[in-house]
Each structure stands twice: as C-alpha cells, then as structure tokens.
Amino acid sequence: MKKSLPILLFIVLCFLCRQAYADHVMGTDIQWKSLGNDTFKIIFRFYRDCRGIPRSGSVVLSFASDSCSSAYTGTVTCTRTSIKDITPVCLNNRPCNPTNTMVTGIPYGIEEHIFEGKVYLGGNYANCCWYKFIFSDCCRSGVINTGYSWANYSTELMLNRCVTPQDNSPEFRNPPLGIACTGQDIYYSDDVNDIDGDSLVFKKALPNGGTYSSPWSTNYPLTCYGGAAASPNPNSIPVVGYNLNTRNGEIAFRPLAPQETVIKMQVEEWRKINGVFKLIGVTARDMQFILLNNCGNKFPLLSGPYAYDVCLGSQICITINSRDSNLTDSTKIYWNGGIKNGSWTSNNDSVKNATGTMCWTPDTIAIKNIPYYFTAGAIDNYCPLQGKIVRTYSVTVRTLPESIRTYSKIDCRLIEFKAIPKNTGMHGASYIWYEPMRLGTGLPANVVSNNATFQFQFSQAGVYIIKSAIVLGCSNTYFDTLVVDSNQMHITTASDTIICPGAQAILVSDSLSSYQWYNDTIPIPGARSRNYIATQAGKYTVRYSTTCSYNSNIIIIGVVGTLKIIKQPVACSGDTVKYVVTGSATAIYQWYRNGSPVNGATGNNLNVVQDGIYYCRVIQPGCIVQSISDTVVFLPFPENTRTYTKLSCWLIEFKATPKSIVYNASTYNWYLPELVGMGMP
Predict the structure, then answer these.
(1) What is the rounded distance in angstroms from the CA atom of residue 279 to the CA atom of residue 129?
(2) Which of 69, 114, 231, 396 to pair with 432, CA 20 to 30 A apart?
(3) φ and ψ of 390, to 5 deg
(4) Contact, 361 vs 317, CB < 8 A?
(5) Cα–Cα distance between 229 and 232 in angstroms, integer?
(6) What is the pLDDT of residue 662?
(7) Of 95-109, 175-189, 208-222, 281-295, where does mean pLDDT reach its minimum?
(8) Residue 175 has what DSSP assignment?
C-alpha cells in the first residue's frame, strides 16, 4: 500500500504536467511582405484552440540560410496585434469568451492571433539567397485521434531574398474552415492570393512533429467517403476521398466519422524569369480540423460551373446560386473581389437562397497564360454552428485571333480576297467573308464565303466596305475599304487603317508596274516597291506607270491617340474648344480633365467650355494609348476705362486705359463720332 501511493502521485503529477502543455495549437500560417532594401514584414497567424491554455503576446521565429555552404542564422520576434474569435457560430454563441483564456465546458472554439515583426536580410545575410523560417511550439491538442496527439508543433516557410523585384508571399485571405459536419460534402477555399501575380501550386504536405496513425496519411488525413484506397474525385456526388485542387487550393471531401485531425497545405510560388518558371518561395497552412456528428445543420451549396472562358474585350457575367436544404435556413452570398475591375451584385436579405453575379470585361492588359481566380462564399443563419461554403471560380481570357487580309486584282473588277493568320498557333481557324457593300448603302450582312481565299466579281466601280471575320474560339471582325475601278490602280491595307503607336499598316498595290509612293502628295524616298509599310499617320497614294500613268486611291492611316484641336486653345469666355482623338470603330474612349475622368465623355471627340488640362485614354485591341495633354484657357472679355479731355475749342483727346495689366497688349478701334439722333458710329 505504501508503494502504491508514490505511483498514484506520479500518475497524477504526469496528468497535471500534460494539462500544462501548450495544447492550444490548432494551426498557423506565415506571410511575408517586402518593405524594400532587404527588409521584410513577417505576419504570423496563430490559430488557438480555446479549450487549451492562453497564448503569450509574442512569438519567436528562427531562420537560417538554406542554400549556402556557410550558415547564417537569426531570429525575429513578432508581437501580437489582434485577437479574434473565428468560430463559425452565431454572434450570440461565441465560445472564446473571455479572449485568450482556457474555456472549459465548450465543444469547440477557435481564436485567430495575429503577430507581426520585421526582419533585415541585408548585411552578411546578403551572402545567401534562400532562408528558411521556422516556428515551433508544444503541443498539438491531445484530442487529435488520427495521430499527432500531443505532438510537438512546427511549421516553416522558404523565402528567396534574391528575387528581383523582391517577393511578397501568398496570403491566406480566408480563415481556416476548422469545423465541419459529417455526412455531407464539404467544399472550402482558403482564398490564397499573390499580389505579385506569381503562379501558385498547391500540394498536400505531411504535418511536422509526428505521424499519422494507420489508415490515415497525407493523402487520406480523415475518415471520408470512399475510404483510404479510393481514387479521390471532387466532382462526384458524393465527393470521393480527400481532394486538393493543385491550381487554386480548393479542398473537397465528405467526412464520415466524428474525429479531430490535422491537415497541411503547402503553397509554392513560381515566377517566369528569363522565360523559365522558377521556384521563388514556399509557405504553408497547417490546421487542425474538428469533425462533428449530428450537428443538425446542412451546409449550403453553390452552383457551377466553376471554370469559364471569355474573349478579350467581351463582357462575361457569372451568376452563382446558393442553396440550403434546411427549410428554415436562409443564406447570404459574397465574393472576395478577386478579379480587378470586376463588379458584384447580390440579392442578400431579399430571398431565402441568395444569388450573386460577377461581371467583368477584360481589356488588353488582362491577357496572361493562366486563369484568373475569384472565390464566392455562402453562409447560413443556423445556430449555433453556422454552415459555410467557399468555392473557387476560374476565368481564362482568350486572345482574339488576327488575320492579314489582301485584295489582289485578277482582271478588271475581279478581285481575289485572301486571309491568313497573323500569328502562329492558330491552326484550325475559320473565316467568314460578307458580301461587299458600296460605301453609304449600309453594312455588309450576307455571308458569301467561308474559305480563306476566294474571288469576287464586282459589277461596277466604287468604294466598297469589306467585312470579314476570323474565328478560333473567339472571333475578330474587320472592316476594310476597297476601291474598285477598272482604269485606276488600287491600294488596300492588310491591317486596320487605325494603328497603335509603333505598329505597322501594310499598304498593298494591285498593279505589277513601276511605283512611287506618296504621303500627303510628297514622294517617299526609296518607296518604289509594290507594298509599303506605313508607321506614321498620313494620306497615302501610289502612282504607277506603264504606257500611261495613274494615281491610286487615297488611304488614310491614323495613329491611335493622335489629338486634333479644332480651335486654338486660347479662347474667350463663352467659346467652345473641340478635341478629336484618333481611334478605331471598336475603340473605348475616356476623356480626362485635370487628371480626373470627365463623366459621360466616352466618345472620340469632346467639346470643352472650361479651363483645364485635357487628354484622352483610348483602349482597343493591341494597345492602350493616352493622348498628349493640352491646356485650355478661356480669357474673360477685355475691359478698359475711357476718358475724353478737351484740348482746345472742339479738339478733344480720346484715351482708353486697360482695367488690368493682362490686357496691356490690347489693340483698340475708335469709330467716327455721330451726333445723337443721326445714327450709330
């Protein structure tokens, strides 16, 4: 009996020691921001289990060089800046109260603690590029039942300080899911965003500090539909296995058993450097999941599809419907603003199941090789545990196919029309030619050929509008002008007559005789071949000679953004100054005054009645151009003071003096006086 007392005391003391461990660690993620000059801001998010002990007001991350033969080490201390209860429950059911304390008697509770610090990687640290930052703590929760119970906790990031410009890490913009219900499909996105536009790759990773118990693993971290041996499929109903989308980080699974487990998602940053994608950073989110049985709530769902294509310059509107199968629940829907210049509308609070619509019109600066991503989420009003879903939607911007069109005279008014792709990689493009229409009689509407090359016999001479299109997923329509005359040489352009700055317009003659090209009636030195490449605005013609000489038609080439002033920009009050800017028929215009958009001024001309500095921004396929700016000053009407001084008899001195020195250079007109009643001078 005496021996058993020390043993019992030892067991009790061990239990109390175990309770004193830092079993509050639910998860973490780490973010860095470049502040310039080799200085980085570290943002450390710590997710605390409110059933565990409090968290101190600072954390220390150690770091060491990872790519040098010499070791460079250091630490960075991060100070807590905020605490927030992120448990997905109703506002009046917050479990982590008071904050940062061990709360007993609750089934769950999650706090987000944010810590921030700065680290300098210049000086001796500049001798190495890659650095690994590590946070470690004791311990994970003792209620984890898939392995890792009471395990030491650690997580890390990899930062490359040599990247130019210096890198900003991805950011986890959504808090972790943390809690889910069994027996239903779970979809969630952490909304990982990279402000540098780097490409991200998401991977399943093994959490540090321990191992999974069988049958759980990195690829099967929880008991879910299909079992450990099944091939994961996020698109099946129900969802099979544990799924992680490697391109956008969305997870999908159907949990089948109440348990607490650990899941780690690693995020790699890749950047194209000198034409080759290179790894520039690695971070991760390590998170404990609480899976509840019989929680009484069915999580909402969001409609698909989840991948879209849009053609450059065309608007896309994606409508997303939420649905909650609980009869008494209603939903609210939201988005993350993930696509710049996209707009979002919703009917929250007016219907049971909310609907949201995202609209976006990509311009030329939106072209890139990877899709754009945004997330939409829905949350229900069930209490206490609210249902939440976040899905990822992708939008791929397709460039417009381009063609080079030529018009060759075969005989008299028989013309060969020919279109070829402007760029490589356009195999399989199709073509549409419309029946030419004489200028002033309407626009072409009837299709006459779907071949790349065909011949058309004109019945009479004249100026014609030629409409054609090239189709390869997206379509691009062209309007060319063609002069048909049996006795005149014709020139056409193989590109639009409105070109971007630095671009070219290829002018093509239909004659095989000798040439001389002109711009505004002035011969162009050395321009004596059949084709001429124009890079400047002007009125182009060509003259050719056989047994006789002919002047061709005139083709006017305009350069996008060229500003024309109709009236000199020094005017009197009440006058109007008109500007006209060059752009194609499909261009988008926005005029600016003193750097701010002029409301409603979206045409190619602007009438000005106010002082200011004016310019226009023109967007069209191929370029975005800002015109030169011009200053308009409206002067008030000049005023003077007039005096009349008698010099002798009827000799009077007339004198006019300006009221302001602004008018010292004014000129004056005096009229012959008339007796009152005899008429006006």
Answers:
(1) 12
(2) 396
(3) -135, 120
(4) no
(5) 9
(6) 66
(7) 95-109
(8) P
Task: Pick the closest to residue 169 from 256, 68, 40, 291 (CA basis).
Answer: 40
AA identity, residue 671: Y
Identity of the residue numbered 347: N
Provide the residue type at 276 as one letter: V
Comparing CA positions, the residue from 380, 294, 377 lying closest to residue 329 is 380
Distance of CA 173 to the CA centre of its chain: 17
Rounded distance between C-alpha atoms, residue 597 and residue 448, angstroms: 43
Phi, psi of 365 (to 5 degrees): -75, -5
Give the CB-side neighbour count of residue 148, counting CA atoms within 13 A: 32
Is the sign of the CA dihedral 582, 586, 592, 598 positive or negative? positive
Sign of the Cα pseudo-torsion (245, 250, 254, 257, in order): positive
- Other CB atoms closer than 10 Å to residue 630's CB: what's the count? 15
CA 587 to CA 589: how far, in whole Å? 6
Say what the pLDDT of residue 513 is: 62
As a whole number of angstroms, the distance between CA 481 and CA 490 comes to: 11
- In DSSP notation, 210-224 reads S-BPTT--SS--S-B
- Please answer whether residues 126 and 161 qualify as being in contact, where contact means their C-beta atoms are separated by less than 8 angstroms: yes
Most confident of 103-107, 379-383, 455-459, 539-543: 379-383
Single-letter residue type at 128? C
> Which position has the token pair 């109390």?
16
Tokens of 96: 């982590």
Listed in sequence order, the residues at least 6 apart from 57 whose beta carbon sits closer than 8 Å to its beta carbon are 79, 80
Cβ atoms within 10 Å of 474's Cβ, excluding its own: 17
For residue 98, whether the previous peptide bond is cis, meaning omega lies within 30 degrees of 0, is yes
Gyration radius (Cα) of the chain, Å: 37
Token output for 584? 């194609």
CB half-sphere exposure, 85, CA atoms < 13 A: 20
Residue bearing tokens 């007001």: 57
How far is residue 496's CA from residue 475's CA, in Å, rounded to a whole number? 16
Residue 324 CA to residue 351 CA, distance in Å, equals 12
13: enclosing H helix or E strand: helix 4-20
The mean pLDDT of the chain is: 87
Q: Are 264 and 206 in contact (CB under 8 A)?
A: yes
Q: How far is residue 233's CA from residue 397's CA, in Å, rounded to a whole number?
A: 27
pLDDT in tens, 456-484: 988 888 899 999 999 998 999 999 999 88
Round to whole Å and give the CA distance between 297 and 182: 10
Burial class (CB within 10 angstroms; exposed 0-12, middle 13-18, buried 19+) of 552: buried
- Of 309, 291, 326, nearest in space to 366 by CA: 309
Of 382, 183, 158, give the one whose Cα is nearest residue 282. Answer: 158
Show the CA angle centred on residue 620, arms to residues 615 and 443, nearest 5°.
115
Q: Count the helices and strands in the chain (H runs, E runs).
A: 1, 52
3-state secondary structure 553-585: CCEEEEECCCEEECCCCEEECCCCEEEEECCCC
Mean pLDDT of 41-57: 94
Concatenate the DSSP letters of all residues of 256-323 into one string: -S-EEEEEEEEEEEEEEETTEEEEEEEEEEEEEEEEESS-S-PPPEE----EEEEETT--EEEEEEEE
**What are the tokens at 569?**
């920009």
- Phi/psi for 361 (5° steps) reads -120, 105
Element (H, E) at 27: strand 25-36
Q: Length of the chain, please?
A: 681
